[in-house]
Amino acid sequence: FPFDQESGLDVPDGYGGEVASHLRTVLVGNPKYSVFLYSQRLSPIRRAWQDNSVESADIAPPFTEDRAKPLKLAQMLAADFYLVGMVDDYKFDPANKVAMMTLSAGLIDGKTGKLLGNFVVAGRADATSAATDAEEYRAVAAGKAIEALRDQVLPSAEAETEPAGETTSETTETTETTTSEAGPPEADSTPPGPAPTAPESDTTPPPDGASEGPPPAPGQ
């Protein structure tokens, strides 16, 4: 799911969506799971809204405040696992050319709502980075934090799906993208792309705040 973000941070509005989109990008290379980004325009979500099965607030951020909300959405999308998260902190020191970003996320079983892992990661950019301005420093710090999150999320998901009898290690360290072994839900008449969008033949506008698709991923 798009990450929520603490108020007052020196990041753009909706930046949590960029974080989730970048996380999806670094997760798609894994051989076991099909990873997709939650959007109000995914067909099952859109149909439920059009049928008045859900309210606009039920399908829009924030996703970390009410655990029941993302669980219901994940079940509508038949996701095996889903991830909800938060951009907890971001600081940039222009004098010393140091940027630091902290992310937290939770990996949750899409069928039971069981919390499988909590993760807290940080990324740092300094004068040795190739960054030249504040935006690039933020992108580098975010990229490092997201890669650290990927390295913790995948082992936690794999531990839940290993056959009984095998020894697994537990990870307790916290977004919300969704993962599924079966593959992403279909978006009617939508060509393949980085994130499913609404069917071209369906002209009903989505609720306010609906995403037109994932924003550009922050740079490494």
CATH fold annotation: Rossmann fold
Give the domain tally.
1
The assigned CATH architecture is 3-Layer(aba) Sandwich
What integer value in Å does the Rg equal?
17 Å
Helix content: 25-40%
Structural write-up:
With 220 residues, the protein is of the alpha+beta class. It has one domain: Rossmann fold, CATH 3.40.50. Helix content is 26%, strand content 20%. It contains 4 helices and 6 strands, in the order βαβααβββαβ. Strands 1, 2, 3, 4, 5 and 6 form a 6-stranded mixed β-sheet that branches. The protein is globular and about 55 Å long. Residues 163-177, 187-205 and 208-220 have low confidence and may be disordered.
Give a quick summary of the entry.
This protein has four helices and six strands, in the order E-H-E-H-H-E-E-E-H-E.
What is this structure's SSE topology?
Layout: E1 4-5, H1 15-27, E2 34-36, H2 43-50, H3 68-76, E3 81-93, E4 98-109, E5 115-125, H4 134-161, E6 178-180
Parallel strand pairs: 1-3
Antiparallel strand pairs: 2-6, 3-4, 3-6, 4-5
Helix pairs in contact: 1-4
What are the main properties of this structure?
220 residues, alpha+beta, Rossmann fold, 4 helices, 26% helix, disordered C terminus
